[in-house]
Amino acid sequence: MVVVGFEFYDVIQEVAAEFPDKKYVYIDNVIENVENITCIDYKENEGSFLAGALAAMESKTGKIGMVGGMDIPVIRNFQVGYEAGAKYINPDIQVETIFAGDFEDPAKGKESALALYAKDIDIVFQVAGKTGEGVFEAAKDTGKFAIGVDSDQRYINPDAIIASMIKGVDISIYETIEKIQKGEFESGNVYEYGAKENGVRIAYGTEDMPKLVSDEAMNQIQELTAMIIQGDIEVPEAN
């Protein structure tokens, strides 16, 4: 059984204990030392580094922002990577984060983003689940820009969303199923997917959408990705 989402953290452990003869693959969170739960986690700090670098390249004001759903460790990891990527490109850039306090409230997301845009911030990275929909609305209303997360979200508003930091959930699940078919699957492990495993990357939408990111910036993101893979850039993690 494949289970996706941090909100199932308690439930999957209860079910796994009740049915110990079944195997579970838990996506996008980590549970250690449970024999029948295999976890697939993503190095969101690496993907967010690329998002921060892109925002810094494309910002016209030298001020960028982030809206996080809640002030919790995983969102802090996004924040640390985002700030590091932005500072790598422009050491003087200003980066501000607001935690909306909710993952399910677009109104709070919009309020948070509007507060950032009012400070001359011109690009906001949303890491807030459904709350992030409000960030996209704020970008549209103010004529400014946003960066999506987890999947390619440009389709929501291709005139306001310049790119998305996506997780390779499809790749990781495919490779897990492949391991099962080959008899190489070892239950109870934790597998991490970062830039090297194509587990995090920047997506720019489809060819029919307006092009909001320059070729130069796209090429530089590719170069930074290669540097992370090669170990030339070590992306910090939240403590």
From TrEMBL:
Its main location: membrane. InterPro entries: BMP_lipoprotein (IPR050957), Peripla_BP_I (IPR028082), PnrA-like (IPR003760). It is found in: Cell membrane. GO terms for cellular component: plasma membrane. Residues 2-237 form the ABC transporter substrate-binding protein PnrA-like domain. Pfam families: Bmp. The keyword Disulfide bond does not apply. Keywords: Cell membrane, Lipoprotein, Membrane, Signal. It is a lipid-anchor. Belongs to the BMP lipoprotein family. This is Membrane lipoprotein TmpC. The gene is tmpC_26.
